[in-house]
Each structure stands twice: as structure tokens, then as C-alpha cells.
Amino acid sequence: MSDPIWVEVCDAEDIEEEDVVRFDYGDRTFAVYRTDKGDYYATDGYCTHERFHLSNGLVMGSVIECPKHNGRFDIPTGAAKRAPVCVDLTTYPVKLDADKVYIRIPS
After folding, report:
1. What's the topology of domain 5-105?
2. Which of 60, 64, 81, 96 is the most buried (most CB within 10 A)?
3. pTM > 0.90: yes or no
4. How far apart are CA 103 and CA 40, in angstroms?
């Protein structure tokens, strides 16, 4: 497998505080977040319960609530926090460079 690569997602200002956006790259989809503290994070895009996209969910501080069955995940760690979800999300490193948001993903 190749080394991970940094991929530009969007301008930093395109994600409001306590918001999430969808980002598709190749055949993969991600959710990219900005918490209430202004920090940026990225996870797999689909809920681990029934593959509903988290970009339609609700960000509350550093928690994302899936819009389908209200399961919750901790955004920084991807940890499942409330049923029906019980499998953690995969998280990805995020960096800001020149007011752009980048995520590091396997190539």
C-alpha cells in the first residue's frame, strides 16, 4: 500500500462552527467537521450502524448525531457514544494550510 496523501477538502471558512460537510474522494466518502471550539476533524462519512451519511447529521460541540437513528459519535476519536451505534468511526488527520482544510487519507 502507498503512503497516505494530503488531499485538499475546502476553504476553512466553508465549514461553520458546529457543522459537518461531505467530502468524496475517489470511491471513498468522508465527513469533515468543525467543532464549537473551531477545531477541524475528519471521519469516514457513513454511520457504522446503517451507512447513512453523517453530513446530514447534527454537530453538538464535539459530538455528531446520525440523522437516521440518533446514534452519536465523539468527533475527535470516532468513538461510538450512544446506541444504536456500537462500532467506532475511523478518523483521519486534518491540517490547515493557507486557510485550506486538508485530510490525510490512504492512497
Report:
1. Rieske Iron-sulfur Protein (2.102.10)
2. 64
3. yes
4. 10
What are 64-103's pLDDT values in tens digits? 999 999 999 999 999 999 999 999 999 999 999 999 999 9
> What are the cell numbers at 1?
500500500
Residue type at 32 in one-letter notation: V
Domain layout of the chain by residue ranges: 5-105
Give the model confidence (pLDDT) of 2-17 as tens digits: 688 999 999 999 999 9
Residue 76 grid cell: 475527535
Contacts of 15 (CB under 8 A, 6+ apart): 21, 32, 33, 34, 40, 101
Contact 92, 103 (CB under 8 A): yes
